[in-house]
Write a structure and sequence with these properties.
The chain is mostly helical. The chain has one domain (about 10-305). The chain has 13 helices and 2 strands, in the order βαααααααααααβαα. Strands 1-2 form a two-stranded antiparallel ribbon. Helix 12 crosses helix 13.
């Protein structure tokens, strides 16, 4: 299975893409403040972070069992980064160019290359067994399952992480908001990054791309968001019920990934690749400075939330 772009492939595994859109949660702000004060220090060791994730999942599973539901503690396996991935995470131009030349920003890649990106099989299975468990429930059972999971995430969050979490969606919202705040504080105020982001924006505008926000964090995700929006528009054009699941909050945005065959996805993938390469050409210097710092902050927040 291909180790895909850190920028966007996670959205292929879920119909829900989370964004910090206001409404600061108190605990998210607390963790963010701690992150800022520790910005010059290293994150927890990989072993310690993994142990916290296992504790968090085990606490959820115990709680769900008490409420009469099956929940399998699941921590996504982490593979050591290969040399190409390490280079991309350092902002290396050649490594990023090679990756983007095939996968673009990573948004349509799971549809264009389902076996390569998602693994063998045509149904794009999710490795988390709880997805299948929830999918086997009736509508009434699923509603009860989500209610129980909300309560269990809240309990596990307090027990293991020391956080006040209202629901499963609130957990993801807090993670996302913490990412947004830490990155805005650490990256958007950096004069050099601001200068490089402005130059990138000018270059992209010259190539005919729309740029509405030139802050470093906005420039870093501009291309991804453009093609996530395209996915959403395509999904809205198709008839059918929206997928069942937990309700969205004001801090979350629901993006539906439209079902496409590789043949149907190809023109969108081609369009995405061109945009991603143009984005990289204009942002060559920006990404070299931005990505290593963003990657470190991403890992730091993830470790704090056992995410």
């Amino acid at each position: 299975m291909l180790k895909t772009s850190r920028l966007a492939l996670a959205v292929s595994f879920s119909a829900v893409v989370l964004c910090g859109c206001g409404g600061a949660a108190e605990s998210a702000g607390t963790v963010t403040a701690a992150s800022q004060s520790q910005s010059q220090s290293q994150s927890a060791s990989p072993a310690a972070a993994k142990d916290k994730r296992h504790q968090f999942e085990a606490a959820k599973a115990d709680c769900m069992k008490q409420k009469g539901f099956k929940y399998v503690p699941y921590v996504k396996p982490t593979e050591p980064a290969d040399e190409e991935e390490r280079k991309r995470d350092s902002g290396d131009y050649q490594a990023m160019k090679k990756h983007r030349a095939k996968y673009g920003f990573g948004v349509f890649a799971s549809q264009a290359y389902p076996k390569e990106v998602m693994g063998p099989g045509t149904t794009m299975p999710h490795p988390d067994p709880n997805i299948k468990i929830a999918g086997s429930l009736s509508r009434a059972q699923l509603e009860a399952y989500h209610k129980a999971k909300d309560a269990c995430v809240a309990a596990a969050g307090k027990e293991v992480l020391g956080l006040t979490i209202k629901s499963n969606i609130d957990y993801f919202s807090q993670v996302t908001l913490a990412h947004k705040r830490v990155k805005a504080a650490e990256l958007d105020g950096d004069p050099k990054l601001v200068e490089l982001a402005g130059a990138m924006a000018t270059c992209l505008k010259g190539k005919g791309y729309k740029v509405s926000d030139t802050k470093p964090t906005a420039m870093g995700k501009r291309g991804v968001n453009e093609f996530l929006d395209l996915q959403d528009r395509l999904a809205e054009q198709q008839e059918g019920d929206k997928p069942m699941g937990p309700k969205m909050t004001k801090d979350t945005k629901q993006v539906q990934m439209v079902p496409l065959t590789p043949q149907q996805a190809k023109p969108y993938m081609d369009r995405e690749v061109k945009a991603a390469l143009d984005d990289l050409e204009c942002g060559k210097d920006f990404y070299a400075a931005f990505i290593p710092r963003e990657t470190a902050l991403q890992r730091q927040v993830n470790d704090q939330f056992a995410f």
